[in-house]
Specification:
- One of its GO terms (molecular function) is copper ion binding.
- The protein is α+β, with helices and mostly antiparallel strands.
- The protein folds into four domains: 72 residues, Sandwich (Immunoglobulin-like), CATH 2.60.40; 133 residues; 166 residues, no CATH class; 112 residues, Immunoglobulin-like (Sandwich), CATH 2.60.40.
- Helices cover 43% and strands 23% of the residues.
- The strands form five sheets. A five-stranded mixed beta sheet has the order 2-9-8-4-5. Strands 13-14-15-19-18 form a five-stranded antiparallel beta sheet, with no helix packed on it. The chain has a four-stranded antiparallel beta sheet with strand order 1-3-7-6, with no helix packed on it.
- Strand 8 and strand 9 form a beta hairpin.
- The termini are far apart.
């Protein structure tokens, strides 16, 4: 590959990375809030002694997980956040005595079991809602600088793991004739993984709290990180890099023939576990199966995508001669290396498909989540990229088959074609190191003949090409150059697949999104029917919402509380608010609720609804002497 081609590959990969990084939103968490006590929008007669939040899975607490703000917008000091006894999915904090009356805001932030922070806020009122709403700064969901650095480190870690594991597997399993050029990718993968892990470990505390990168220098923050599961997982990954370095040094000095693949496999498995233990697989349903699937998925991805880079480097070395008629592809060892990788890549793709289907089912939960959730849409994008990658891989496998056939027809030493069985057998010369542990092995070693079968997809190699050479030139070197171009395209698409996979690992799964929609705590009094009706007068400041609470929301006498919120989401006072309900199916109504102004909210205790069903609630809001607007929503009244 020429320097120009290499530069184009780097630029293409960088553009894809920047495009996907720029289009990716903040990472969403797996945990969702099931309920809170007091509930959002509740009006209490007396101040509560504490607040309790229940989530869909276990959560980790921060030093500042709960913040309470009074009606004037000032923070009220609370007790220390803690888990409810025996319930890691429930968090609570004690309130001080004498809160007073008005509307209070609770801002919360916890860490999901899959290591992503999740935050939110809700309000409750004591006595009656405040007539005006003070601006409350509940803090950012994520610091932009911290989030950008965190995402960049995550992408780098994924790419480095694929390069490191895939290149090492290529050297050990495919045994290239000259592994020397692969030392640089191995070193680059190791150093990048080391640097990205250190950055992730340092940024873990500010990422969890939503603080700026400068807070990473706080020793107390780092100490807190090292006591939590995500921090311990990153620390374990950092510790694993020491034996990985020792293994790579041994591989470099002694060569693949004298290095135990089992050691490399164990180290790769341990590294993959550090990702599975800190992402979606570690939470939700079927955790043991999900962890095993996640590990296999990551390893298969690394062997395939990282191996492609190693193969491209090997082919670049083999086709460096600019002479188009060069016989650089005549080396039977190189032909055997390509054939071996073809078989290994096919196995890796099979593992990717099986584990990917399982993980997609586990993350989605339903077919509608494919189009209705961000996770599903990203999954469709990844599927499209994988299909394109498989098409490119199919082209590479066809060129591999042609290369093996061309090598056999050229009469290369140690190779033969077996057209009668429709498969290719390549006899290679496997060097036996002599005279010291130099790596790669010397060319003067004694040959050992090994038969290597290379079952490839499609028709038997050369079967569709008659008696003519299937390569662009008579020499196998022509096939090598064509294969290199095909692998180059495969690597380019692989970059996109890797980036989308990284984005997907930090996105709220479709199953969790559906659960969040189905279990979101209803605002208002527990057991009541709560409805939000939007309105818009078409004038500046003339839009907002009306929150209608019917207690108990059943047939018979109901109490009504209606609160008006302005365009900024704060409580708003209006000169008039009318509410009527009708039941179109039974031709009942409209029934005027006859709301009265109760100082900050509108209400009545005498609304009688005689029949259950889907009632239509119509709210008319007058915001000035001349401007008013109406809106309606369906309210289900139970028996």
């Amino acid at each position: 590959m020429t320097r120009g081609s290499a530069r184009r590959l780097v630029v293409l990969g960088a553009v894809l990375l920047l495009l996907l990084l720029g289009g990716a939103g903040p990472a969403s968490a797996h945990a969702v809030l099931r309920s809170s006590d007091p509930a959002d929008g509740t009006v209490l007669k007396a101040a509560p002694a504490s607040v309790t939040l229940t989530f869909s899975e276990s959560v980790g607490l921060l030093d500042d997980s709960f913040r309470l703000f009074g009606p004037d917008g000032r923070r009220v000091h609370t007790g220390e956040a803690r888990h409810a006894p025996g319930h890691s999915d429930t968090a609570e904090v004690a309130f001080p005595a004498g809160l007073g009356q008005g509307t209070f805001t609770v801002a919360w932030r916890v860490v999901s079991a899959d290591s992503h922070p999740v935050s939110g806020a809700f309000t409750f009122s004591v006595g009656k809602p405040s007539p005006t709403s003070a601006a409350v700064d509940t803090g950012p969901d994520e610091n932009p600088a911290t989030g950008a650095l965190w995402d960049l480190a995550r992408y780098a870690a994924y790419g480095a793991a694929a390069l490191l594991i895939g290149t090492a597997a290529f050297v050990l399993l495919c045994r290239p004739p000259d592994p020397g050029p692969l030392r640089r990718p191995l070193a680059a993968g190791w150093w990048t993984l080391l640097a990205s892990t250190v950055v992730l470990l340092a940024l873990r505390a500010p990422y969890e709290t939503g603080a700026g990168p400068a807070s990473a220098l706080d020793p107390a923050a780092l100490a807190r990180t090292l006591t939590g599961r995500p921090g311990l997982v990153l620390l374990a990954r950092l510790a694993l890099l020491a034996p990985v370095a020792a293994f790579l040094v041994r591989l470099s000095r002694r060569g693949p023939s004298r290095t135990t693949p089992a050691t490399g496999a164990a180290l790769a498995l341990a590294l993959a576990l550090t990702w599975a233990a800190s992402e979606h697989a570690s939470a939700g349903i079927q955790v043991p199966s999900a962890m095993a699937s996640s590990v296999l998925h990551l390893l298969a991805m690394a062997v395939w995508l990282g191996g492609l880079t190693a193969l491209l480097t090997t082919l670049q070395r083999a086709t460096a001669d600019p002479d188009p008629e060069s016989s650089s592809g005549d080396d039977p060892r190189l032909t055997a290396t390509v054939a071996r990788f073809s078989r290994i890549a096919f196995l890796a793709v099979t593992v990717l498909v099986v584990t990917g289907v399982y993980q997609s089912w586990r993350g989605l939960g339903s077919w509608t989540a494919l189009t209705d959730t961000t996770y599903g849409r990203l999954l469709l994008a990844k599927l499209a990229a994988v299909v394109l990658l498989l098409a490119a891989a199919g082209g590479s496998r066809r060129w591999t088959a042609r290369l093996v056939t061309a090598a056999g027809r050229a009469g290369s030493a140690g190779s033969a074609g077996t057209a009668a069985t429709g498969s290719e057998a390549v006899q290679e010369r496997t060097p036996e190191p002599v005279g010291g542990p130099s790596y790669p092995a010397a060319r003067t070693t004694a040959p050992q003949t090994v038969s290597t079968s290379a079952p490839l997809s499609g028709p038997p190699a050369g079967a569709a090409f008659g008696t003519s050479s299937p390569c662009p030139s008579p020499a196998p070197g022509g096939c090598l150059r064509a294969l290199r171009r095909s692998v180059l395209a495969e690597v380019a698409v692989a970059v996109a697949v890797l980036v989308v996979s990284t984005v997907l690992s930090g996105t709220l799964p479709g199953r969790a999104a559906a659960e969040a929609a189905g279990t979101a705590p209803a605002a208002g009094i527990p057991g009541a029917s709560v409805t939000t009706i939007p309105f818009d007068t078409g004038t500046p400041g003339g839009r907002g919402t009306v929150q209608i609470t019917l207690e108990p929301g059943r047939v018979g006498q109901n109490a009504v509380e209606a609160v008006v919120f302005g365009p900024d989401g704060g409580l708003s006072t209006v000169p008039e608010l009318r509410l009527s309900l009708s039941l179109p199916a039974q031709k009942i109504g409209p029934i005027d609720a006859r709301l009265t102004d109760r100082g900050g909210y509108w209400g009545t205790d005498s609304l009688n609804l005689p029949i259950p069903g889907a009632w239509t609630a119509k709210a008319t809001v007058r915001v000035s002497e001349l401007d008013q607007a109406s809106g309606s929503r369906t309210v289900r009244i139970l028996r």
